[in-house]
Every structure is written in structure tokens, then in C-alpha cells.
Amino acid sequence: EVISFSEADYEGVRLPHDDPVVVTLMVELFTMKRILVDSGSSTDILYKHAFDQLRIPVDQLKPVKTPLVGFTGEMVHPLGSIDLSVVAGTAPHQTQVQMT
What we know:
mainly beta; 1 helix; RVP_2 domain-containing protein
């Protein structure tokens, strides 16, 4: 389902703007708050602390050999990748997707 914004959503917003979008989603049946949506990013990152709170065994991670390059140029080696179920919205207007 398409997520879009109407003219009413722009009320009080000065255009052009580049405000960050922060959402709350259900990830593997857990409510995750303060998820930053960055449409310019090429990867979805879940920090280890959040991963640990999902109580998913580390052995379910798939190996990743390519390091990530941070904003300051430092290289970070991911622990791995995993596919997780993500639910956005509330019934009857919600969607569920698998994200890596």
C-alpha cells in the first residue's frame, strides 16, 4: 500500500524543508520507537542493542563481508544481516513487509 501525504499534511510546514522523518513500527512483534527514515541511505541498520532486545539468537545472522562507511569516513564491520517482519500502520490501514 502506498504511503503518501496530502496538502493537509503540509499545514504549518515551510517549504522546501528537509526535516527528518521518525516513525514507530512493529518489528518481529516488538514496538520499535524512534526509527529514522533516511531515503538517501542505501542500507537499513539495526544497532546491536536493539537487536539484543528482539531476543533473536545471533546464530540467525547471515555473514556480511562488506564493511559500512560511516558519515565521518570510519569503517564499521556489521555483525551480519537478517530478514525481519516489519508492520507499518494500524488496521485497517497497515502493511507488512520483510526487510533485511
